[in-house]
């Protein structure tokens, strides 16, 4: 069985394991106050081409979203998100557990647009009974979105402009950021994101690390005391060096981008193969996840050899499925799958 | 510089790294639904000699304490702890952040006794204005305690008896449990703990793992829905296998106990060396941490070659210090330190 | 200007003021431990024809909803509500502030049906990734609903049956309960509600009291420790007698039902007048709120003499408005308004 | 039986009842947007001799403390209080329920001093592991304190100075403020308090109102969005006019101060009578509560005719008791009690 079910099926890039072995018996300070972490911070600042950012390392995505959001909002505020956003239905109420409502915006493609934010903002502030309502306090987006679509530079610039005008911090969930930035359809750089967002994170778990997400805070008012919230949520790793080592390796000689770029190449080849076969794809996913709409017969054929995810039912005979590639996907496995699609 | 500052200065036991390498490209399900995790659960059940327990793996201690406590208490209840308990002053208000007060009991040695719990319970329930007070809802202890002391079997039996009588779940924080159970002064087994406590955890981070704590739930009413709270707190690792692999290795052929036992041997040798030198030790620590009370002159001598922690000031010329051994401590380093103590 | 904007424009029924004056200098215990409160509890038990219920008095609706819901749910659970429910968008995120998500169901008429609850329940429990989702933990309805519609006895029986089968406590928000129970279209009694719901409240603020809501808990497991949560939320009135006195007066010789019944008569006369004039009413409101859809011209005419609420825009020339009657509405004011509708 | 058990045994000052009757059928806007509330705000501004303050009305003390504190602190911060503070052990964990720890300071007399705040602040910020600790975020005091003692102007000035220097908002709980300000031993004015504190409240419940507390916010950064937190905590009264009417009456022609002043006179007479009899008083209470230490025999004599509170046991034969006077205390009742003390 060859699995394309998700991008967290394997361990990590071998270079990380090598570094873990090499450093295993070196003694270092705990809680991220170590040399490896310092090195990783420097490399990320360099990759963002920005000195005045704070970088913190966390273990996973839900944890990161909850901590970033809780550190920004005041008790009566909520976070604005696309209705399809990961924080809405996939994080077990983690945001609500910190006392905050998620204010949802409709979306067809997983993205939200600047005008939607502006409208929601004014709908709140123009309401004379606004105090009965949850005040919008920040904006959450992800890139790629839950549907694999990518924000264009123009879209992100508009969002950023509106958010700054309305004093709503903009937070970009970059769980799979490596796969967005290396898509041939992408026109954003890490530097753009660091400049346009107030806070974002660079996902490690799904992009070559054993685990780990690097939070980058650009906006000065959001920097203060961030580590307290991390600590309070039980998210400061005793052996913080593990996160430092991993990001230090991933940001050495662009490894992060190289391995993510390969995965996206494979995914787009796969997309092409489905399209050639006349199989429609759900949404316009341009990164490492592809959502072919398969007939029951096609599903039955493919599931003999391949693992993939059932995403949603279309009708009795059609199903949206998800195939993920990753930093760990092998050329021969993609080739085999493409051959089998052609032969279907 | 040889460091004895803490027991989380290095990576992990080499056998864990070997297993990570061996399994790195094997694909497995996420979120702990993998074969390694299943294997680790089986081994822990065997080590506890108890089938009807639930075992869950979490990343760190503060996270574990907050999740266990939040999963048990109702909103108006608090958790009873020794005033010196880790949850009181060392976890950044993590318990309060889940809405609960920590109800503290005085202690000289880091432990609490059954009678104290009974008194606090009755002080609450005998108060006609009890609804203005926080209701005691569970009891938290740690073994070894924050001061390195150990609960005897008799003490834990008494506590357990009172807690069950009063319907207060008993939670044992086993952050350094390996070092407690392998002390020659200990008379408790893992099986005893599983039988006497309603929930406890077996610490991995400080006992040979890169990170990880194994929560064991014995009491049936506490088992339900535990994973939801884990997920909501962002504590279900995408690559849950990492926790499974580590505990599977640690509980293979008693590795966990062997490596912790070594560390305790070293620590007790160290204790002996201090005592022989006429240096008083703070408290009666019988596990891997020792707290010698050093003069300024002694501190100056030792800090040239050794790292250790300043614990608390006694007076202008005396300081309580902490020396930790761990699974990673080397014989030659302990020998060197003991020689230097003798020569002081 | 004669106001029909809401049902909380005036003070309280004169008999309550009389009783406040009569008792003003009598000394009584605080926090609801007084004779007036005991008397009110007895009268409510009698009105419910049920001995084994707990009755507590709170100050307002949002407070009551938050306390009841927080006292029932475990941290990972959410409350199921119609999308139009008061707790969704009108309480400033009070439910989320207690850590819980509101799980919404679509509705056309403000009510939810038993089958919707069953489907949502199964959608959750059939999801293999259910732990990423918020677990449904109870069901919230209001009667009358936000749109003024009434649950029939058959509907409430079905809901109750499904909720008990699925172990989801059923909570009825009775903010305007008096106006529901006295509608000629209603077939439910207070006794039915006490038997079919696990907890509900009898609204006082909008039904003749200065303020106050009487929470009735029928389900035994929900009774325990309720006053702790009240106290913790700052909702135990020092002079609890004020609530006792008010409900004692309201439930003396059916005063509550008499004054609410009058208000509903007025509202239905108003409804009839609008209908006769060919003015459509939004929804099928059968209690003390009526929602005529007025043209701009009609609005301009009426707003010269009458206060009413703009509910929502239909199109450029039509608006849903709300006219409320209450225990304080005067016959001459209703007559004047009906005359003016006819003359429009 | 004549009761001196507390200062909330009766209803309210008759002038308030008169005003409630007079205004009962006048229609007004809800939620505090009414003329009575506006009038009360103006009067309080005048009494504080300060225009640039925000005034909000809440129902009770625990509610007010929780809302003010939750509106100020960030999630990782705690509130500093005397160990005897009302928020520590008398509010059912209301502060912890909003996610915050109470950081306690020792006290002999119920007050805290500027230097204690400075030390706690530096102990936190000088700690290299400070992120494991809860950051002090504001200071809570009450005047009179829980023990009836009064802050001198010099003490409050020092506290205010330190708090402003350290950027810790200073909040004064004025549950019984009327009784502090009218004590002959007091040298503070309402204006002083408004200038020296960042936020405080003027207690109504215990000082002549049926219920109600007036929150005064002096510090500009604390003003923003306060009503959202009120609403979210279910503390915006639908008939907000009830609070406006009460404070409007209490601040008409200094009624608040007159009635509180009488109560303090009575209490000090009582103190004198106990002292003359050779009965020691616990603490140095200078307002409306007195804490005589009675022998069992004395208690038995007095409890035949008078209600009072048992405060704490001193030894087998002595008990600290509490006698409260209030706006409702009658001259003849005080005279009778004093006679009986003399005859004991």
UniProtKB/TrEMBL annotation, chains A, B, C, D:
SUPFAM superfamilies cross-referenced by the UniProt entry: PLP-dependent transferases
Keyword Hydrolase: no
Keyword Transmembrane: no
Segments crossing the lipid bilayer: none
Gene3D superfamilies hit by this protein: Aspartate Aminotransferase, domain 1, Type I PLP-dependent aspartate aminotransferase-like (Major domain)
Cofactor requirement: pyridoxal 5'-phosphate
Keywords assigned: Pyridoxal phosphate
Aromatic amino acid beta-eliminating lyase/threonine aldolase domain residues: 4-244
Domain of life of the native organism: Bacteria
Pfam families: Beta_elim_lyase
Family statement: Belongs to the threonine aldolase family.
Protein name stated in the entry: Low specificity L-threonine aldolase
Taxonomic lineage of the native organism: Bacteria, Bacillati, Bacillota, Bacilli, Bacillales
């Amino acid at each position: 069985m060859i699995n394309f079910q998700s991008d967290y099926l394997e361990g990590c890039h071998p270079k990380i394991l090598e570094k873990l072995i090499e450093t295993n018996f070196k003694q270092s300070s705990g809680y991220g106050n170590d040399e490896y972490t310092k090195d990783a911070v420097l490399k990320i600042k360099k990759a963002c081409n920005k000195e005045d950012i704070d970088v913190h390392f966390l273990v996973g995505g839900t944890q990161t979203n909850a901590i970033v959001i809780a550190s920004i909002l005041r008790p009566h505020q909520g976070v604005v998100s696309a209705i399809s956003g990961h924080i809405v239905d996939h994080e077990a109420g983690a945001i609500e557990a910190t006392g905050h409502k998620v204010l949802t915006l409709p979306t067809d493609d997983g993205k939200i647009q600047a005008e939607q934010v502006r409208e929601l903002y004014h709908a709140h502030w123009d309401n004379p009974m606004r105090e009965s309502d949850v005040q919008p306090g920040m904006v959450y987006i992800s890139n790629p979105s839950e549907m694999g679509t990518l924000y264009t530079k123009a879209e992100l610039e508009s969002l950023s402009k509106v958010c700054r005008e309305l004093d709503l911090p903009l937070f970009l969930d970059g769980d799979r950021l490596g796969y967005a930035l290396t898509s041939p359809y992408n026109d954003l750089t890490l530097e753009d994101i660091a400049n346009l967002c107030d806070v974002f994170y660079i996902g490690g778990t799904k992009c070559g690390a054993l685990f780990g997400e690097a939070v980058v805070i650009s906006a000065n008012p959001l920097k203060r005391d961030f580590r307290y919230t991390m600590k309070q949520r039980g998210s400061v790793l005793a052996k913080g060096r593990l996160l430092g080592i991993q990001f230090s390796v991933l940001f050495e000689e662009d490894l992060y981008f190289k391995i993510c770029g390969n995965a996206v190449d494979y995914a787009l080849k796969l997309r092409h193969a489905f399209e050639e076969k006349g199989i429609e794809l759900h949404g316009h996913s341009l990164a490492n996840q592809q959502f072919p709409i398969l007939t029951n017969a096609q599903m039955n054929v493919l599931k003999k050899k391949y693992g993939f995810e059932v995403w949603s039912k279309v009708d009795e005979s059609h199903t949206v499925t998800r195939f993920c590639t990753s930093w760990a996907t092998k050329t021969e496995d993609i080739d085999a799958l493409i051959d089998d699609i052609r032969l279907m």
